[in-house]
Design brief:
By secondary structure, this protein is of the alpha/beta class. Helix 1 packs across helix 6, helix 7 crosses helix 11 and helix 8 packs antiparallel against helix 9. The longest helix is centred in the middle third of the chain and has 16 residues. The chain is globular, with a radius of gyration of 20 Å. Pfam families: Epimerase.
């Protein structure tokens, strides 16, 4: 009997990581979650090793003991709250460096996926190539540095994935807030704006990660955006959510009113409110197209297992049961 393939996942206690743990476990893999935080999915507590990716010795010992075939690195600080010093995002820099060093010295690991972010470029900036960066904040800058570390230091087989805006079961700010705001009847679209967005339902995202992990068709830059295809229209998405929850469509209001509400949100955000429903940053995201080339991803993954409506129904069912 063939031995189980082993997958070592960092950050498996978070949103995408929790779904990755479940996906690979259900596929029959032996899975370990290395994370400083307890899993949000309580069913996976027995697969959790408590550890910080900044603790090189603990991380190295855990990898050596588990002896994985594959590594998926998702551990990171992902909020946008730091605005003073990039050292606040050290997990995204020296944490990545620790992972690279450990895997460089472990020849049994067949492939590693490193999670970056679409925020290595601001939303309205179209990069010329994967080395063209324009981060909008310190979080994006830290992810840019993490990518550069991988490219400069890794001597093993790897792929960098840039998740776009991913949503679904176990999600949190900002897209859980988006769903909750619609549920409360407080979400409005700017009148006359219906941008297209490269967003991703998380069950599709973990399916794509699996396909990428075992593909030999990745581009020479070993980098790929993680998103559903084709891009969705924001109004179509919000209407599906609103109909599923409240049995009505999304309301639209004049742009100047939303701008005013966003400016008030900016004030509350500066005062320390961490889940403001609308800020200028989020308003600009609402009205701006965000579309990425998915041709390579489509070649690797083929048809996605879930369409937009199915993703909305699964997510709302999860919200209602949690």
């Amino acid at each position: 009997m063939n031995k189980k393939q082993k997958v070592f996942i960092t950050g498996g206690s978070g949103f995408i990581g929790s779904n990755l743990i479940r996906h690979f476990f259900n596929m029959g893999f032996d899975v370990i979650n290395y994370d400083i935080k307890e899993p949000i999915d309580k069913l996976h507590k027995d697969k959790w090793v408590k550890g910080d990716i900044l603790d090189f010795n603990k991380l190295n010992d855990s990898v050596q003991e588990f002896n994985p075939d594959y590594v998926i690195h998702f551990a990171a600080r992902t909020d946008l709250d730091e605005n003073k010093n990039i050292i606040g995002y050290d997990s995204n820099i020296n944490g990545v460096k620790n992972i690279v060093r450990i895997i460089n010295n472990n020849k049994n690991i067949k492939k590693t996926i490193y999670a970056s972010s679409r925020m290595v470029c601001k939303i309205d900036y179209v990069p010329k190539n994967y080395h063209d960066y324009c981060p909008p904040n310190l979080y994006g800058e830290s992810k840019m540095i993490g990518e550069k570390i991988v490219r400069e230091l890794a001597n093993h087989d790897y792929v960098i994935v840039r998740p776009t805006s991913i949503w679904g079961p176990f999600f949190h700010i900002p897209y859980r807030t988006f769903f909750d705001t619609i549920k409360k009847g407080k979400f409005f679209l700017p009148k006359g704006h219906n941008p297209k967005k490269s967003f991703g339902f998380v069950y599709n995202s973990v399916f794509q990660i699996e396909k990428i992990l075992f593909s030999d068709k990745i581009n020479d830059e070993k980098t790929i955006y993680l998103t559903d295809y084709p891009p969705i229209e924001l109004k179509t998405w919000s209407d599906l959510i609103s109909r599923r929850i409240n049995n009505n469509k999304t309301r639209e209001i004049p742009v100047f009113i939303l701008k005013f509400i966003a400016s008030i949100g900016d004030i509350f955000s500066k005062l320390g409110w961490k889940s403001v429903p609308l800020t200028t940053f989020r308003y600009n995201n609402m009205i701006t197209n965000m579309v990425y080339d998915t041709s390579e991803l489509e070649t690797i993954c083929g048809q996605l297992p879930y369409n937009l409506e199915e993703g909305v129904n699964i997510t709302v069912d999860w919200m209602e049961s949690n």
